[in-house]
Every structure is written in C-alpha cells, then in structure tokens.
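**Entry details**
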Amino acid sequence: MSYQNNDLSPDRNLVDVFKELQQKRAEDGYNYQTGNSKNNHSSGITTYFTSNKHKKVYNPYSYGKKIKKQLKMNSVNPTKTFNYTKLSIGIIIITLIVSLALLFLSYSFTTYGLEENESQPAAEAVEFEPNQSAIDVTQIIASNLDTSSFKETLTEERVINFPIKYQTADNLPKGEEQVAQEGTNGTSKIVAVRTYEDNQLVEENIIESSVVKEPVEQIVNIGTSEFLAKYKVHLGDLMYVTTDVSLKKSPDDKSENVTDIPATLDVKLLELAGDWSKVSYDDKVGYLKNSVLTSATAAPEMVEKARVRRIMKDVKIDMPLNKKSGLALSDYKKMLSGNPEDTNKIFEENYEAFYEVEQKYNINGIFLASLAIHESAWGTSNIAKDKKNLFGYGSYDRDPYNSSYEFEDYKEGLELVAKVLVKNYLNPKDTVIYDNEKASATYYNGPTLEGVNKKYSTDSEWYKKVFNYMEKFYNKLQTGTSSSSSSSTGE
C-alpha cells in the first residue's frame, strides 16, 4: 500500500495504520533490533503524521514546543524574588514529565503498531478524547516558581524591660505596696537574620547583640506593719492621743518627760519603734506608746475634738488678739446664737459680720464681740439701738450720746473699730496690716487685753471683764451650752 495517498478512510483506525506501517517496514527490510531500513530512507511515520491536513493528529514534538511557549508566556515577573533551588527542581520536573510522555508514546506505538498481525490493514488516524484528569505541567512549574523564600539581615535597637525587685518594709501598712524606686527600660543593639516563606516570617536568629543602655531596676516595698494597717495611717499622718499623756525623750517609760499632751489632741507620726512611736507635738519631738494612739479612721470623732481642744488650749487672758482665732463660720454661729441676754438678737443676726472682719483684718472676732457686748450691754444701750454703734465709738464723757458716731448698720461700725484697733493698739509700728497699710502703733502696749486696756479704758479691770465674755463664748464652743453673762456694762 502506498503512503503517498493523503486521503484516509474514516473507517480506518490507529491500529490499522500501525499495522500498515509495520508491513511497509517489513517490505523495506526494516530491522527492529537496529532501527535501520534496507532502503536507508526515513520511516514513513513522519510523512504519515505530518501529511494529513484533514485530521487533528497528536504530534509529540509540536506538544513539546507548545509547553516551551506556555512556559515563556507564564514566566514569573523578574522583579519578584524567587528561590533558584526551586527553579532547578521545576526544570527537573518538566524533563521527567516530557520523558515519561515520550516513553508512553513509544510504548503505545510498539504495543499497538508492531505486535499486531501484519496482515491487518492500517488503521485510520482518529481524534483522541481529552484526558479530564491530565497533569497541568505549566501549573506545576508556575507554582514552584511563584513561591517566595528569602532571607534578610537587619540591625536595630530593642527595648530591655527593667527588672522588678520586691523587698519588705516595716514602715508601711501590712500588705501595702509602694514603689521606692521607679524602673526605667534599657536598650540593646542586635543583628539578626530573618527567614521568610511565602512572605511570612518563619524564623529569626540573633547573631550579635550589645547593650546600649542598661535598664534600672524598679524597687517595690511591701509593708509588714500591723499597727499602721490597723489604724490605716502612714508616716507623716496625724494621730490622736486617747488620754492625757507625757511625751518621752526616748522609747522608755522611765525616760525624761519632754512635755504633757492633753487627751484628744493630735500628733504627727514620724517613725515606728516597736511598741512605741516617734511623734511631733507642736515644735517638740518625742516618743509615745502605740497603745495611747488612735486615728481618724478608727475614731472619726477625734478630729473635731482635737480641733476644739487646740482652740481652747490657747484661750488665756494674755492670748494675742492680732491673729485669727481659727474658728469656723459655724463656730461663730454656735457661739453667738441662742444667748438669752441677746434680747434684740443683734449678735445672733450679725455672727457672719464678726467672722468676716476677723478674716479681713487679722483680729480676733470673739474679742470684738465681747468688747461690743461690754460697751453696749448686749446691744440694749441707746447709742447701740439708735445709732447702730455697739462700741460707743466717738463719744466723750461730757456728752456721750450726741458725740458718738452713727452708722447705717452694725457691720459698718464693727469694721471701723477693727481698723482702729489693728492700726493703733494691737500691732507694733510699721507692721503691714490691711490694704498694705502699716500700723502706726499710737497706743500699742502689746497685743493682749491688758495691753489694750492701758490706753483704751480708764477702768483698770476692763480687760478682765472683756475676757470674761470671751471665755464664756469659748466654753460654749467646747460644751455646746450657753452661759449667762456677769460683768458690768456701759455705754
């Protein structure tokens, strides 16, 4: 049969074609062992497979070119980093796949073309059905080339966290923590190699590290004092004595007495010394037993008792009058209200005026109230009622009523008398007083009642009578009860 005819019958199959090819080679003396032909011409299979223009015939050589073309089209971006080791693996995989494909074709040719009976006619070339589960070579290559794997070296500074040291402290309440020293972070310089797979960090190896700045440890004290925890106090806080007690020079019952401290008064806690505490009382320092101390937390009422007790401690006939009393507005209300002698309620209704004058002119307001009561008989004198003048200010012995000043209200007269006393009676010369003025000290003989008495009144017992009122008001602050007055009054 001649192979020059390019027309293939549709009834012929591939097996027939191979048989025809085998027969032709036998006729030409083709040696299957050496692959040589008697006629020394190329096998007709090339002519056969390339001459058919009407059928889609599988050509392994053209398929290899197609693979190369697809590889060229699907080549990875040169700007993208890839691993050359994986590229080599990809090339090896391609080579193996192509070799296997060629081996498969050779095996097919031998099986279906050469081992059949040579007498059977050659089969017509037919189209092969595509393999739905065929291996996609280009996909395998692309997936290997697209995998990013690389290493980088970096140098940077990193934080060194400061360590924390805990230590016990007997000057803190038990269980309480206090930072004694703040910690600060340090820094180190490191050189590291990082490994990435698919752009993800998978490993870091530090190959060099040096300290740039040493960290400073943080020190935390943990309290152990049950005494401080019980009373919820710290060193520097106020505590209160529960009974009259003597301040000792050292923490010993037989130690020398420094001073006496009345019950309810406050002391400042300085140190702990076993069963004793080092405290300060006013300007004196010494030791008290812990058993005579309490706190505002344990005994809230002690705060008010100590305040009143401190005020009362300074109430003396020779007490200075050129300073504030330390009394609150509520104290003035308590002291000047509810007094049966105040029939016209002049002092009860003007308690705020006495408090405000004290704050403004640095003069004891209770002294002013006691002076006004003594001079106006609790505001019942004609000068007090008609002229709002509680002090008889400006009056002369020959005509007291007509010579006395008249004011619009009681506060106006109160302020004028306060200024006169501060400027002329209570302060040494050139003392800076209200509105940056200076004291003239025209009648100054000391800032006490007795000192004022020498130039203010011809009655040598005047200062005792005024103090009697002051003492009764202060006692009312302490006891909460009013007292009847019992001293002479005048206009």
Observations:
- Residues 249 and 286 are 5 Å apart (CA to CA).
- The domain at 232-308 is CATH 2.30.30.40 (SH3 type barrels.).
